[in-house]
Amino acid sequence: MCGIVGAIAQRNVAAILLEGLRRLEYRGYDSAGMAVLDNGTGQLGCTRRSGKVAELAAALEAAPLNGTLGIAHTRWATHGKPEERNAHPHLASGRVAVVHNGIIENFEPLRRALEAKGVRFASDTDTEVIAHLVYEKLEEGQSFPQAVRDTIAQLDGAYALAILDRENPERLMAARMGSPLVIGVGIGENFIASDPLALLQVTDQFIYLDEGELAEVEREQVQVFDRNGQPVSHSVQRFEHGHDAADKGEYRHYMLKEIYEQPAVVNAVLEGRIGRERVFEAAFGAGAEAIFDRVQAVQIIACGTSYHAGMVAKYWIEELVGIPCQVEVASEYRYRKPVALPNSLFLTISQSGETADTLAALREAKQNGFLACLTICNVPGSSLVRESDLALMTNAGPEIGVASTKAFTSQLVALLLTTLALGRRHGLAPELEAELVRELHGLSALLEQVLGMDEAIQTLSQRFAEKHHSLFLGRGAMYPVAMEGALKLKEISYIHAEAYPAGELKHGPLALVDKEMPVIVVAPHNNLLEKLKANMQEVQARGGELYVFADAKAQMESGNGFYKLDLPHTHRVLEPILYTIPLQLLSYHVAVLKGTDVDQPRNLAKSVTVE
Q1: For 351, which of 313, 520, 559, 560 is 20 to 30 Å away at the CA?
Q2: Which helix (H) or strand (E) holds 8?
Q3: Percent of the chain beyond pLDDT 70?
C-alpha cells in the first residue's frame, strides 16, 4: 500500500527521500510526491507526479528541491482518482505539508465543516483535511505538537502521518493509528518511514511506534508520547535483515530472486527452532509451553496467500494433532459473530504483520474468549507481533515482489513447527515427530533439486503464452497448494485461473474443459494418487491438456496432451511445501512471456494496510 518517508538532517534530504520511495515501490502505488523546506528561502517546495517514482525523479532533476527537512510519499488511490492533484504531500496555505497512509472514515463531515469556513480544497482525498485542520490550529496560536495532537483527536479511521510546518523548521511530527510507522535513528539526523526498508541506506536503527502514539522528531532527539500525551520510552532496535535484500543481483526480477532464496529461507525458519528430533517451544515466546498445554482447538485467520498457508495447516493440525482447526478469511471473520471453541488458540498469519483485516480480527478475538493469540509473521516490530501473546517469526527477509513466494513457504514451515509443538501434547508419537524433524533438516536440499527443474518449467510455460484461462487441481492438502498456484498465475500473468479439489470436477468445472483450457495438476505419490489419476482421465476424455507435477515414483507417462514433470520424493507431510515451487516458477515464466510487470502487477499492492 502507500509508502511514507521523512527526514530531518544537516544535509540536503531530497536524495534520501527519493531513494526511500524507490525502496517502497514494491508496496504498490499510482503516484509519488515530495515536499522539502528550503533553508534559504524558508519556503515549502512541493513536487508531485502521477505514475512511477521515475516520473517524480525526472521532475526533481529538472527542478531540484533543496533543504534539510522533508517528507515524501507513494500513493495507492483510495479517495480520488490516481491523478497528480490527489498525490501526496497535501499542503495547506503553503505552510503545512502532510503525507498519510490509511483511511480517515469521517473526512466528509470534517471537510464540510472546513468548507463552511471558507477553506478551498485542491484534491478529492481524505488526507487534505488533515493539513487544513493542522493549519487552522496553528493559525489559532497553538504550538505545532499541540496542533497535531488536537487534529488527530478529531480523526476516525486508520492513519500513519508525517507532518511538517514551514514555521517549525527544527521539528517533524509523526503519528500512527492502525497503520505502521517507524522512526529511523541516525547521528545528528533522524527519519520517518512506513517500512524500515525505506531507510536502510541511512540507518539500521529503528523505533517502532505503537498504536495511538505521536512522535516529535528533531535532529538530535526523538520524543514519543502516548494517546494521552504522556511521554513513553522505546528501545532502539537494530533491523535484522541484510542491506542487500532489496537488490535484484543477477536476477531479472525480484520474484525470481525470491523464489531462488527459498532453500536458504527454510533454513532460516528452522534455525534455533529444532534439534535433532524435536521442536523447541521456546521459539514461540515466553509462556508458550503453558499455553500449548491447554490448547484444544485452533482458529486460523489470514488473507490471500497467507490464507492458503492456513488451509494447509488445517490438514496438518487435524491429522497430526487431532484437534479441531478452523480457517477463515480475515475480512469475513471480523464482520460476523464467531463462536470460540473452549481453549482455542487464535492463530494469525501475515507477511507484513500489518494486514488491516487480520489485525482487526486479532483485536476482535481478544474480546471473544480465546485462550491466547499466536502470530506467524515476517516483521519483528509489526503490530501483529506486538499485540499477540506469542509469535513465531518466519525470518524470510524483505519480500519485494508483490506476488508472495518465499513468504508462503516460510509460513508453511513455521506452521508445521506449530503443528508439531501442539501435537506433542495430543498423542503425536515421538517417533513421528522425530521423523518429521529429520525430514525438515533435509528440506532445503530437496527445494534445491526442484529449482533445478527451472529450465524444463520454462520450456513448458511456452504452451501457456496464448492461453486465457486455466484450471488447477489437487486433493487433500494439495488443494490449497493448487489454490496458491492459481493465485500466482492470475496475479502476475493476468490469465484467469481457478483451483478446485479434483473430486469436484464432475460437479461443474468439467464443463469448462476443452483443448483451450490447460489443466495443471499437483500429484504427489500418496494415498490419493489413484483417485487423482481417475480425475485426470476425465480431463483427457474431454480433450483437455494436462500439465502434471508428479512424484518421480508415480507411474505416469507423458504424451497425447499429457505433460509431466517429475519431482523428488518427499514425506507426505512436506509435500505441500515442495510442490509449491514449480507452480511459482510456472507462473513466473508465463508472466515473462506475456510481458507483464512481474514484480508490480496491475491493481495490486504488497501490503494491504487498509480495508
Answers
A1: 520
A2: strand 3-8
A3: 96
Strands (DSSP E) contained in 513-558 are 519-523, 546-551
Nearest CA among 232, 158, 178, 169 for reference residue 7: 169
Can you tell me the mean pLDDT for 464-480? 90
Q: What are phi and psi of 505, to 5 degrees?
A: -50, -50
Quote the longest CA-to-CA distance of the chain: 81
DSSP E strand stretches across 64-187: 69-75, 90-92, 96-104, 157-165, 172-177, 182-185
For residue 256, which phi and psi values (nearest 5 degrees)? Answer: -65, -40
Strand order in the sheet with 325-329: 325-329, 297-302, 344-350, 372-377, 390-393
Task: Give the pLDDT of residue 245.
Answer: 54
| 274-310 residue pLDDT tens | 888 889 887 888 788 899 999 999 999 999 999 999 9
How many residues are recorded in the chain?
611
Amino acid at 507: H
Q: What would the grid cell of residue 497 be? A: 485461473
C-alpha cell read off for 234 = 522505546
Which of 131-145, 273-287, 421-435 is predicted least confidently? 273-287
Contact 434, 334 (CB under 8 A): no
Q: Which residues have C-beta within 8 Å of that of residue 182, sequence separation ≥ 6? A: 192, 193, 194, 195, 196, 199, 206, 207, 208, 209, 381
> Residue 243: what pLDDT?
46
Q: State the average pLDDT over residues 15-43.
A: 90
Distance of CA 129 to the CA centre of its chain: 28
> 133 vs 39, which has greater pLDDT?
133
CA separation (Å) from 368 to 272, 278, 365, 443? Answer: 33, 33, 5, 38
pTM of the model: 0.74
CA nearest to 404, candidates 169, 583, 217: 583
Which of 77, 17, 27, 76 lies closest to 47, judged by CA? 17
Distance (Å, rounded) from C-alpha 458 to C-alpha 440?
Answer: 28
Q: 493-511 burial, b if ≥16 CB within 10 A, otherwise e?
A: bbbebbbbbbbebeeebbe
Render 350-374 in DSSP notation, one character per residue.
ESSS--HHHHHHHHHHTTTT-SEEE
What average pLDDT score do residues 341-355 get? 93
* Catalytic residue numbers, as ranges: 2, 606
Of 208-222, 241-255, 561-575, give the lowest mean pLDDT range.
241-255
The closest alpha carbon to 461, from 501, 498, 489, belongs to 489
Q: Using DSSP bridges, classify how beta strands 344-350 and 372-377 pair: parallel, antiparallel or unpaired.
A: parallel
